[in-house]
């Protein structure tokens, strides 16, 4: 029986060595994957739509007003997140924006109002100018319904 104890001990040691080797391999590959394409001290890549934008908005219900949009690029999630404020005569509507960070037009989901009304906003950035259109799906964002916007990037 002493030979069988040595064999079982050898099996346990071999299993521990294999598991340790596999764990080290996974850690090494994770470090390499995280380091690829990044250089210490280099800023994260930015999206051209990121920043503060302001300008005019024309809503089919509320009429003409002003608008401010602040967008942030979340590189790890590949999304654009932000906020908006529309100001009309006697009314201000604020809310949040979130959508994928694609090249070209941005398709953002917008939420606003006490009941978190859902809507959609399409934004087309072109240099320091961004134009777009929005539609709110219910009346929680009163007085807005749908409209067009024309914004300029702020320094």
How widely separated are the two ends? 82 Å
Strand content: over 45%
- Structural class by helix and strand composition: alpha+beta
Number of helical stretches of at least 4 residues? 1
DSSP, total strands: 8
What pattern of helices and strands is seen along the backbone?
HEEEEEEEE
What gross morphology would you assign?
globular
**Helix content, binned percent:** 10-25%
The largest β sheet comes out as:
8 strands, antiparallel, barrel
Question: Which stretches of 5+ consecutive residues score pLDDT under 50?
Answer: 20-38
Radius of gyration: 26 Å
Query: Mean of residue pLDDT?
Result: 79
Placed side by side, the strands forming the largest sheet appear as: 1-2-3-4-5-6-7-8
Structural account:
By secondary structure, this protein is an alpha+beta fold. It contains one helix and eight strands, in the order αββββββββ. The chain has one helix at residues 2-35; strands spanning 51-59, 63-74, 79-88, 91-100, 106-112, 117-126, 129-136, 146-153. The protein has an eight-stranded antiparallel β-barrel with strand order 1-2-3-4-5-6-7-8. Strand 4 and strand 5 form a beta hairpin. It is globular and about 75 Å long. It starts with a helix and ends with a strand.
Give the SSE layout.
Layout: H1 2-35, E1 51-59, E2 63-74, E3 79-88, E4 91-100, E5 106-112, E6 117-126, E7 129-136, E8 146-153
Antiparallel strand pairs: 1-2, 1-8, 2-3, 3-4, 4-5, 5-6, 6-7, 7-8
Tags for this model:
single chain; 155 residues; alpha+beta; eight-stranded antiparallel barrel; 1 helix; 8 strands
């Amino acid at each position: 029986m002493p030979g069988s104890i040595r064999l079982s001990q050898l099996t346990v040691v071999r299993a521990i060595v294999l598991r340790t080797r596999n764990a080290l391999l996974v850690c090494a590959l994770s470090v390499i994957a995280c380091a690829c394409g990044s250089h210490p001290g280099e800023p994260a890549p930015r999206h051209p739509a990121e920043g503060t934008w302001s300008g005019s908005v024309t809503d089919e219900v509320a009429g003409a007003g002003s608008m401010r949009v602040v967008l942030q690029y979340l590189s790890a999630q590949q999304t654009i997140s932000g906020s908006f404020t529309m100001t009309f005569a006697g009314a201000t509507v604020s809310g949040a924006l979130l959508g994928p960070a694609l090249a070209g037009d941005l398709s953002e989901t917008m939420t606003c109002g006490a009941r978190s009304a859902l809507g959609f906003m399409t934004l087309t950035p072109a240099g320091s100018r961004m134009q777009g259109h929005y539609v709110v799906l219910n009346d929680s964002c009163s007085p807005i319904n749908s409209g067009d916007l024309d914004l300029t990037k702020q320094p």
